[in-house]
Amino acid sequence: MNEIPTKPYLLRSLYEWCVDNGYTPHVAVKVDSKTQVPSEYVRNGEITFNVSPSAVHKLQIGNELIEFSARFAGVARQIAVPIANVYAIYARETGHGMTFDVDAAAKPATQAVAEAEPSAPREVPALPAPANTSPPQPGKPGGGKPKPQLRRVK
Question: Per residue in 31-79, pLDDT tens?
């Protein structure tokens, strides 16, 4: 029997954590031939979705796929993304969340070949800065400490 990976469970729990705390959950995805996304919004082979309950309809985070419908420029579109293509889920307001390695199967063929060869370690850029970048206030959540930025670790 094949064991179900932990990734879909982590995605579901972090999504729920974001919603329960009033944050806006975002999912960052590597786009390939298996993703059903609006290609006009893809940048550098990636796309990020706001998957909050107010932004999407009929969200299902299954063990193999994330599916939902959303409006882009007023037009309803059906989105389907393999779990393997998701490389991050985070709260827009705080940047807190989790990053994941993307399976070799989810990478474009040329990128998968290039990354299979040994190379020097490289710096991976942090996810976009949260929209609210004001410094934390003492006595409030964060206690005056700077908030960590997500980094993908291999």
Answer: 999 999 999 999 999 999 999 999 999 999 999 999 999 999 999 999 9
Assess if CATH 2.30.30.220 describes domain 7-116: yes
DSSP label at residue 122: -
Specify the pLDDT at position 109.
37
Contacts of 119 (CB under 8 A, 6+ apart): none
Q: What is the pTM of this model?
A: 0.68
Tell me which DSSP letter residue 43 carries: B
- Residue 127: name the closest of 61, 18, 40, 29 by CA: 29
DSSP state of 7: H
Quickly list DSSP for 49-108. Answer: EE--TTTEEEEEE-SSEEEEEEEETTEEEEEEEEGGGEEEEEETTT--EEE-PPPGGGS-
pLDDT reported for residue 94: 96
Q: Cβ contacts of residue 60 below 8 Å, gap of 6+? A: 66, 67, 68
What CA–CA distance (Å, rounded) separates 135 from 86? Answer: 30
